[in-house]
Amino acid sequence: MTQNKLLPIGSIVLLEGGTKRLMIYGRKQIMVSNNPKMFDYIGVFYPEGYIDPEHAFAFNHSDIEKVIFEGYQDEEEIEFQQVLAEAVMD
Q1: 4: which residues sit within 8 A by CB, 6+ positions away?
Q2: Is 67 exposed, middle or buried (0-12, 13-18, 19+ CB in 10 A)?
Q3: 3-state SS, one letter per residue, for 51-70
Q4: Which among 3, 9, 28, 70 counts the fewest CB atoms within 10 Å?
Q5: Cα separation, 57 vs 72, whole angstroms
Q6: Hey, which residues does 30 pair with through a beta bridge?
């Protein structure tokens, strides 16, 4: 990831080559399969929201073509960003 700050929950993005916007609802997600992998985000279609597990998408910040809306940020979010930044540095 080329930046050290992840987008907040509720952010709306368009992925590279995508035609449908996604809303971020989770960060630093580990997808368990044959080869577990961590992704920066998990998102769902916007404006539909969560439909089922088949319509939840894990992706990295580098996959984002455009940030349409940046989600809500308050003191708690700022503190959480610091925790995330420290975890990445470890």
Answers
A1: 85, 88
A2: middle
A3: CCHHHEEEECHHHEEEEEEC
A4: 3
A5: 21
A6: 38
